[in-house]
Amino acid sequence: MNSIIDSAVIIQTFSHSVPSTPSWFGEVVLIIEHLRKQGVLTKLCERIRFTRRRFGHYEVIDFLAVLFGYAISGERTLEAFYERLQPFAIPFMALFERDRLPPLRHASSRSGTLSNSYIAISSSKPRCAIRGIHEPEPPKRRGK
To answer: Which end of the chain is more exposed for a tag (fewer CB within 10 A), N or C?
Structure first.
């Protein structure tokens, strides 16, 4: 290890590779914290239901975490997202108050739970439930 010390900056180098935080991770933190403060994450978990109630250890919030992270990351594929996220999976899931990332095999296989969940969410009924969480009701018209 080599160190360069200045009164304002400390730089350390190591001979082994250390992964860098993904550039999109900070954006995920900000957006998820905002959604939490607005109560959106809680409402999503209460209103979205999959055809199966649970997927082993995983619940709706686990798959929403992957969905949000993947969408915000801009990674080209879910596999690329998982590969980039892997060294930071525990802190990422901690943003959602969860302790483990659903395995990629669940997320990417044809019969995988995440893929089926995306399809289920894309139908109109779940989309309407999601819209109702963050879109205010239109103002009522007064009679003339």
So the answer is: C
